[in-house]
Known about the structure:
Elements: E1 2-8, H1 13-24, E2 29-35, E3 40-45, H2 51-57, E4 64-67, E5 89-90, E6 115-116, H3 127-154, H4 163-166, H5 169-187, H6 189-201, H7 206-226, H8 246-270, H9 272-278, E7 284-289, E8 292-297, E9 306-309, E10 318-323, E11 326-329, H10 331-334, E12 340-342, E13 347-348, E14 353-354, E15 359-365, H11 371-384, H12 390-418, H13 423-437, H14 441-460, E16 463-465, H15 468-474, E17 479-482, E18 494-500, H16 505-516, H17 522-533, E19 542-547, E20 551-556, E21 559-564, H18 566-571, H19 578-589, E22 593-599, E23 602-610, H20 617-626, E24 630-634, H21 639-649, E25 653-655, H22 660-672, E26 677-681, H23 687-692, E27 695-699, H24 704-709, E28 712-714, H25 720-755, H26 759-762, H27 768-787
Parallel strand pairs: 17-24, 17-26, 24-25, 26-27, 27-28
Antiparallel strand pairs: 1-3, 1-4, 2-3, 5-6, 7-8, 7-9, 9-15, 10-13, 10-15, 11-12, 11-14, 16-28, 18-23, 19-20, 20-21, 21-22, 22-23
Amino acid sequence: MKHTYQVTGLSCNGCKSHVEESLSKIPHVDDVEVSLKEGKVEIEMSEHIPLSSFQNVLADSQYDIYPEDHKVEEKKLAPLPSIGAGGVYYCPMHCEGDKTYAKPGHCPVCGMDLVPEVSSENANESEEDKSYQDLLRKFRVATAFTIPIFIIAMSEMIPGNPLFEWMPVKYWNWVQLILSIPVVFYATWMFFQRAYASIKSGMYNMFTLIGIGAGVAWLFSLFGLLFPQVFPDQFRTVSGSIHMYFESAAVILTLVLLGQLLEVRAHRKTNSAVKQLLQLAPNKAIKVEQGKELEISIDQIRVGDILRVKPGDKIPVDGEIIEGESIIDESMITGESVPVHKTMKDHVSAGTVNGKQSFLMKANKVGADTLLAQIIGMVKQASRSRAPIQKLADKISSYFVPAVVAVSVITFLVWLVFGPEPSMVYALVNGIAVLIIACPCALGLATPMSVMVGVGKGAELGVLIKEAASLEKMNQVNTLIIDKTGTVTEGKPSVEQVIAFDFDQEKLISLMASVNQQSEHPLAEATVRYANEKEIELIRIDNFESITGQGVKANVEGAEVLIGNKRLFESQGVNFTNEIYELAVKQQELGKTVSYLAFNAKAVGLIILSDQIKNTSRQAIQELKEKGIEVIMMTGDNALTARAVANDLELDEVVAECLPEDKMIRVAKLKEAGRVVAMAGDGINDAPALALADVGIAMGTGTDVAIESAAITLVKGDLHGIVKAKALSESVMRNIKQNLFFALAYNGLGVPLAAGALYPFFGILLSPMIAAVAMSFSSVSVITNALRLRTLKIS
């Protein structure tokens, strides 16, 4: 049996691991899964365990456990204490999922520097640049002092060492100590701070290994310099002085600092997609007020304002053209390179570029409500989210650092007992090399870097990913359910004709449009538009009601008017003649959508509508089927119209006259059968099924409710975007697996080499300095591989 409870006090993966480990020790608990994001824990048990047992286990900790429906006030966690400008910062390894901080600092889990989220204020000069410059300054200081230390230490290998003619080696050792102080206590002191914090919290990370390794080398040298008499002869050089490792500590720390510098430099490129999106929005706009044109700031635009867009200008906000026409380049948000012709009443989006003609537009959405702002928000959110495959890396990392420390100790003991003289020196050097080369940084970066670059690439293609989990799940999808109107078809139906039966034609059109003007359905909008084009006056209505999956009804001048499908008429007890029914069937067989209209319980008219199939639908469905995906169309339209569209598109299956709950039920059944289901739709009625599907895909041209319910949004709103999403998912998952393989293979090979596995056969040892170089560049190689996704070609 499984039970779900609320858990408070959680802040990071360390908390998650502690709670899972504590609860797992209780008898009869089979499995424990903590969700940091939701603050919940799911416990699987072989027999019922009272809540008090769980509460007792956590009684002496900061965590509390409650029933799932219990109302608790979450404790607000204080941001990391640090100095710097305000903003939003997050861990590049996403150790704590989408958790952010208000100030710069370092991640309490992995110790990495927090990265500033790109915003409109820092898109051109990111705070990452400031972090880069700070690290660069420290690296220059470290290098300036490390090079002479290295020269002094290596000079012992030069025959007739000229340095020792100036003064004895013991004085040069003091020089090395003095030169190493700025390196250890200024340029790289942050590494030791993070190592101490990790040991204190029990959240071991890469800095635990670096701090122990470099710290032991430096402290050993200091102790040897101050108290040489306590060391045995095997620690002494030919000259009688103690072996010093100031140069090893300084070089290792400087190389790790170089690795951090290269990581920050590479990481800046992963945010390039968001930066490019932020730079799309112009800073100024031209407002037309009382015949005058005024230049105003973007922040001053309000809904309803009339704006002038001149040739070559970027469109400032979302709206519609009210005067003029032009060719608009929408490639930056839709991923489509072909400019689009826009005219009166057509929608235009912020950030797109006007062609060679001027026009007037009315602002409909401003600020955070614009499509561009929503795209940026979704990209940021998805970039910080964690893919399920990250659990594998987290699981490995949780055991990795303690295991490496154990291997380092074993290496030291083996060399001490079985190594050649001076065995103590060999033992110390190889033990430190193991600590340094086994840095888990590359393993931690493997997934988040690929996700971040992949999400940014998706934004360029017009595929918006809400969270990394959906990007991973999309790779496994084998069944796709699609809606018809607005998904397969243009979603811009038009009224072809209105047929009246023993009823005034103009009165019928007026009734049709008057009732439909309160409906959000695209078919209803088409009928209102048809009446407006014919300049037919609308009538006041009362008691409007929308009946999901069937139609609408209202009272007009004391009479009840029904508009909808055959199911609506049957449920309301309205009969219609064979003549009306046969005419409706004939039109439906041609792929037309037919609505019936009744006045006072009598069928008096038919509304014939058509909605063109999108040009991309046929090719997209064919490509999806070639990838092994079963495509099912489920629509609220009648069976004849749905079958006509399905035959045209060669669909695997079609289900007509569906209610929203029918789509949900079908999704649930397919999932129970082991299918991985994606659902694509654009309307409010699709929202429940979108939320239930493994991957919900919303058309960007659809309703806000559908977009909110979906995990992926296609900006352009056509099925070819699903092909892009599938290809992107496959590429990102392949890239993540490559990164994980590189990181694991590197550590799997590096640790034995550092431990001296080749020495008995070839006399080869891996010095701690070479280990530091390899460790730094392993992380950079993972980031570089992730950046290859930026050049991905998906058409």
